Amino acid sequence: MGRRSLWESMRMSGRSIAGSPVRAALTALGVMIGVASVISLVALGRGAQEEVAGGLQQLGSNLLIVYSGEPRGTALVRTNTSNIRPTLTETDLETIRGLPADMITYVAPATTANAQLKYENRNTVSTVIGTTPEYTEVRNLRPAYGEFFSESDVDSRSSVVAIGMQVYRDLFAPGTDPVGQRIRVNGISFRVVGVMEEKGDAAQDNSVLIPITTYQRRVSGDSNYAMIAIQAASPDVMRPLQATIEEHLLRLHRLPSMESADFYVANQLDLLATVEGVAGTFTLMLASIAAISLVVGGVGIMNIMLVSVTERTREIGVRMALGARRRDIISQFLTEAVLIALAGGLIGIAIGVGGSWAVTEFARIASHITPISIVAAFGFSIFVGLFFGGYPAWRASRLDPIEALRYE
Amino acid sequence: MITMTDVSKEYRMGAETVHALAGVSLQIDGGDFVSIIGPSGSGKSTLMNIIGCLDTPTKGSYRLADEPVEGLSADRLAEVRNSAIGFVFQTFNLLPRLNALENVELPLVYAGVPSGERRATARELLDRVGLSDRVRHRPNELSGGQRQRVAIARALATKPRVLLADEPTGALDTRTGSEIMDLLEELNRDGTTLVLVTHEPELAERARQVIRLLDGRVA
Question: Per the CB < 8 Å rule, is B98 touching A318?
Fold first, then answer.
């Protein structure tokens, strides 16, 4: 079919659509709703996916954590390790610290325990984390007020504490400056040096951090660490780094393989992959449900086109008598179906994009319109028009001109 | 122009075979005016459909302008109808959504004529049938006689050799009908072969040659 005859088909179809605009609009409605729901649901799915992945990045970047004990659950960060017997030694820590700088940026040991906190007459239950200043780098923590404790606090086993935002709220009256105040952690007096910024991670916000040396001396008496948190130099070295650490620690712990190991390494990449996989499946599911409505819209087009062919039997007969070939009739009806589907698709894209924007703007629900979903929706509406318009158009082209001319 | 030799057409109606045409032979020369007359059921519709290339004979041969028509594909037949035949129907068969000009243009669309040329030709033809002031009118805004004039202009659009008129005055009053007949005869005098299908003897008598059909045969 040449350009000219395509143009003619489009003009004819345009007229026929303009001849019954309400019917055409109702026919397009199905495709419109289908396309709008594909676009907006995919946008919502993508938005959720990115929000979850973004939340994971918040935990720290290029994060690897060596834990004592056996793997438990899928969580990357376990703020409370009080039920784990620490198996990671000072030698393990020094070995990891000794790894090349192009693999490792920061290393921080940590051990945690349940803690009863008290300030004046207020109490709260929290987690106490013994660690080093590097922990703030690895976990992307920053003081909101005051500051974090220093290396010299670690060296001198000072009784200083940096508290989470939730702990601050629970212990202190609003507006109180906590820096310099003394709180009791499991009955031991600590001076507050800072309040950490809120992370939105309940376990982190409800914890208090003290120097690891102070922890070992005054809280547990155990010189081993429950975990060692590591920031890798780049995402690319994370898997080799994990392998290197596993190899070193197995040797140091005199263990044959990871199956029998008394430690494990949690890798942020694995978790990201899992989360994105789940979110991707979710998005795909939403898209499939929406695609079903597109198919229903297509069936609507087929239905109306079949009615239209029957109604216009005589017109088809006249056109055939005047010299329309089968392909002329096919292209006329096919163009009509595609135009209706395309109009529905374009309006649907506008509604989907507008709807996603409105949901984000007014309901604060994350959504992300991807260009590919717009292109796919556009292409799919053309396909729906071709596919569901195809049979009615073929039926029209197979009419016997004599019968069609006689049709009342 | 038209040569039919021993043309038969059979239909199967359930278990029965109906012989709509049983061995019709006829000859129509270029520029001739021929009428085909016969009562209903005589086979004149079938004969007209075959002449108009809407249908093909079961047996026999049909040559239109020295080209054999039997055995042509549906699309080839459509092309022959487009270029060689102009149809004028009893009920006009104009497309209601198109105005007079667009209706006349329609055969030229299927002939692949560019839009500007089409428009010019259609205007000329509407002028020729006396409707130059009605080009933008839709069929329902025109009288019966005017509609038939639009239909005649449309039939002439591709300059066909044969004008095939099926009861062209059947839906018109006597005066308008006679004007339409005058127009058709005028076109015939200008060189177009005119085939008139009718059941009215006085109309048939205006032709130079009258073919009478009875029970699928030339009587």
Answer: no
